[in-house]
Amino acid sequence: MKSVIEERTAQGRGQGIYALESFTKGDILYLGVLDDRPITNHSHASQISKTRFGFHKGLGSKFNHSCDPNCGIMLNATGGHNIVAMRDIAAEDEATYDYAMRNYRIEHFTASCGCGHAKCRGSITGWKDLPQQRKDDYAGFVAPYLIEMDAETTAIAPHEHAGAALAGENSARM
Does the reported pTM lie above 0.70? Predict the structure, then answer.
């Protein structure tokens, strides 16, 4: 099988993944195969469900983060993350994705983001910290459990706000 991506040095960003041929929107660059070892969350872990984390075999952990990525995430039948072109990618371009497309919270990248794009948010954040417009821009290219977690958080939040408002109203009466 011919390789369509390879690991190379990404200037100022360690190792990265580069396209060896052109890709169009929807093309799979990397087929996600999960390592079967159970792990806890850390910098190279991918969130693979609402509560579990895992490693991807092969080059999966070598894709760099970008706040303006050319790739996104799609779950495959095994639960692994396929890396899929969100737009056309030319041969020799670095393939990147936003780590927020796979993880609800990012706790292991405390330094500032080094992606260098005009859309850079300054730090590598999780899905929960993305503005709604960015989430909308990523539609169809994120792990579905993130959208479910957002919906659950949104369903809980109005009740919390209503309770706080009621508590404030009751204290004002006293």
Answer: yes
